[in-house]
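#data-curation
PF: Archiving a pair of folding outputs for the training set. Convention for this channel: one message per protein, sequence first, structure tokens after, nothing in between. First:
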Amino acid sequence: MYTMKEDYLVENQGSQTKKKSLRSNYKKIIVVLVIAVFLGLAIASKVYHIHIPKKNVCIDKNIVEITNIPIGDIDQNAKRENLSPMALSIANSQGPGLHRRLPKALIIGVQKSGTGALLKMMNLHPEVKIATREVHFFDLDDNYSKGYEWYRHQMPLSFESQLTIEKTPGYCDSRCTPERIFALNPKMKILIIVRDPTERAISQYVHTSINMVKRNELFDTFENLAITDGQINLKFKSLKRSIYVNYMRTWFDIFPRDQIHVVDGGKIVTDPAGELQRVEKFLGLRNAISKNNFYYNKTRGFYCMTDGVTRTCLQMSKGRKHPEVDASVLEQLRNFYRPYNKEFEELVGQKFDWP
């Protein structure tokens, strides 16, 4: 014989079971809806080419927003009372007098293509000031996190009429670098120097192997590293970096074409004055570098520089002799690079005398 209490317990248990069942159904419906939304977006992005923005992990808003000013185009008459101390410091450094100024032009690479030679040759120009070391601000997270003011303090002292240039060859194929540079200065002038991809790869191999010898480390021959089971080994970084088009597309997607200048590393060797005059024009500088600034050094086998008073050549580590590479390997590499070279020429609108 049931009591009223027992009836209540039975009803209560039934009610609780129904509630649990409803909650479970709601959860299932929510999960299904979420999956449907993501599937719908995925299908739409492929069928209708809809761009779904991803979270930007390259740009640190704390670094970008703390300045609160457009670095490349500061209005000297703008009200500055609302600027942060860092922003005010950067803004004030753009005015007349001798200051450490953020660069307005960058040499982004490519490693072992003549970046060091290009920088030293640009230093002949009286309106140019160069950073004497590779700062690695945009490609190393630890440095980037130090902020724009830290970066500015790595620059040389210069006058308002002078152009500061910084060189870090690691910028060219760094994933985050183009976005970070654009966030700092959308008007930044970008210089990249390239050379015959096969020769550049061998040069990087020589550079790496010499450093390994200094560390008492063993290294293999270029042929063994470049070719694996008869195929090009793209795990070998020296080869991968010579596919210029693979990473330069990103730069052209972010920066306007007229802000990127491609320097021919081959012509820097044979006609430095002519190539530097094209760089002057790109940077908006008056013509100050001529054939009188270069003389051929027969011992070194390339042109050295003079400012009319002193003579200087690139350090002895530059222009090292390359090892003899098997002719069949050279041919295989040149055939491999040829279609990529064609794509690169179409991208930059420029022809190169590469085999």
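PF: Second:
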Amino acid sequence: VAFVAADVFFEETFEDGDGYKSRWVESKWKGKDQGPFELSAGTYNGDQELDKGLKTMEDYRWYDISAKFPTPLETNKDKTLVLQYSVKHEQKLDCGGGYIKLFGSDINQEEMGGETDYKIMFGPDICGTSTKKTHVIFTYKGKNLLTKKDIKCETDELSHIYTLVLRPDNTYEVFIDWKSVEKGDLYEDFDFLEPKKIRDPESIKPKDWVDEAEIDDPEDKKPDGYDDIPKQIADPEAKQPEDWDEDSDGTWEAPMIDNPEYKGPWKAKKIPNPAYKGKWEPNMIPNPAFVDDKEVYVLGEIGAIGIEVWQVKAGSIYDNLLVCDSEEIAKARAEKIQERMAIEKTLKTRADEDARKAAEEERKKREAEEAAKKKDEPEEEDDDDEEDDEPKKKEDL
């Protein structure tokens, strides 16, 4: 496959073993609560060496590590920007992040943490049943802008490839395993800009403005005797029980049931209000805070990538990090990874099935042992029967 004028700004596959330690810097910002990383391909993988990645190792820890680009990307103006990586939550992540971030090259790597300014935050976040999403967050003029859309994430224990494509037409697209799961317009899905118009704070609803779209029909009259209809009546099908004794039980009364003739409090029917002027809306005026920007996709200088997450249960494996300006390059890399992911899935499925069968056999064995134990137990003598026989024996004597 030929790629024309395409650039790879950063790529990490951890294929040189501990060599990654010369490129990646672990933060110290959380001190003793900082969790360690180790290289691992996980229990199930397509290639023991090629699938090695950074694995979070201890529960209830912060994980913060970053690497700088060989050469900072001065600007993504007029470029497509692609951010891609794979992550596997082998521990069945129940609460924790699985996302990554892009930073400027001026990042203090040893102090990098949750308060560090970033350009993009992207990837899965899981916590219980309420949070299972793929974050897409841009930093714009000092504010972190979350997507207005709910983008689901994968929650199984297999490797998945997350890809974010940011295009120079101010659109974006999210892929999981190179299947598009969400796309849209940056202006519509994020609050990059203030609204062009706002409600006029001096616009006041006129006192004679009529808000009621309908009114009671003045010609509608309540029927005679309407209020005399009881809400409940005696059940006409109820019968006095044959064994009812008025001397001891009192006078019998049929139970009460809802009256099918009862219609509730009377209300006049509604008719259109001839004085209705419609829903009042304040006047809209130009927003003095609005500043147009035709290039909100431009992130400025980018020079580092990092993992910055908290995990209750550790065991996530990050691998195949890529930042480039070509969707074709990213997809080609992903296709190679997916070949190994298919092997990983086969091995995991086979192991799960073996475990299921073993559990089923163990259950059957336990049930058989319990049945055999009950069968071998002697029957208990009926003491009551013996006691019943005693009077008969005495009578015989």
